[in-house]
Write a structure and sequence with these properties.
A 5-stranded mixed beta barrel has the order 1-2-3-5-4. The chain has 5 helices and 6 strands; from the N terminus they run ααββββββααα. It is elongated, with a radius of gyration of 28 Å. The chain is α+β, with helices and mostly antiparallel strands. The chain has helices at residues 2-22, 32-35, 127-131, 135-145, 168-192, and strands at 40-50, 57-68, 74-79, 94-103, 106-108, 116-117.
């Protein structure tokens, strides 16, 4: 009985430590070489969050400063809530995002990226211990080494009639014009091509 208890306790502890280790990421140093790993880097503010419902969660962000890549003023971040480790975004938070594109103007978060949240109280910033620098130093590095990039303007097509079905009057006119064109073609074909 004592061996069974020891064995169960061993596997229980192994299970707990396995989960803790799963959320640990390698420590990285802020450098241009580290920035090369990512396609898009920006500082943004979370506008809204849609939680996971059997699909990736979505955080919509307002891009404040773009350091690398292309992005519009509004940018969507996808994150996986079904894993043990994932970023939790809340509206109003400010983040520095390091990511790779999933689609145009959409990125997929990797838990072990350098992405980090801003804390009002620097003593609460646990990212400082893992990244080796505080939030302000990271922004300063990104501005100096990568520079500020222009955001892509959202040029939505103002022609709202494209790809829309005609109303009933337009349908009747199109039908009548089509019948008239067929009759004209039949008349020309039967008269001149006998």
């Amino acid at each position: 009985m004592k061996r069974l208890f020891t064995l169960v306790l061993f596997f229980f502890c192994l299970g707990i430590t396995g989960r803790i280790v799963a959320c640990q990421c390698p420590v990285t140093v802020m450098s241009l070489q580290e920035c090369e790993k990512y396609e898009v880097i920006f500082r943004g503010k979370v506008v809204s969050v849609t939680l996971c419902n059997n699909k990736p969660g979505e955080a919509f962000m307002e891009v404040l400063e773009l350091y690398k890549g292309n992005a519009e003023h509004k940018f969507k971040i996808l994150f996986n809530c079904s894993e043990d480790c994932f970023y939790e975004f809340k509206p109003g938070e400010e983040w520095i995002i390091y990511s790779r594109y999933k689609q145009v103007n959409t990125a997929l978060m990797d838990y072990c990226s350098r992405s980090r949240r801003y804390f009002n109280n620097p003593k609460q910033d646990y990212y400082t211990a893992t990244s080796g620098n505080d939030y302000e130093d990271e922004i300063k590095f990104l501005r100096e080494k990568l520079g500020l990039h222009r955001l892509i303007e959202n040029k939505q097509n103002q022609d709202y009639s494209r790809n829309s079905l005609p109303n009933s009057t337009q349908s009747v006119v199109i039908l009548l014009v089509s019948i008239a064109a067929l009759l004209l073609f039949y008349f020309i074909f039967s008269r001149y091509l006998k």
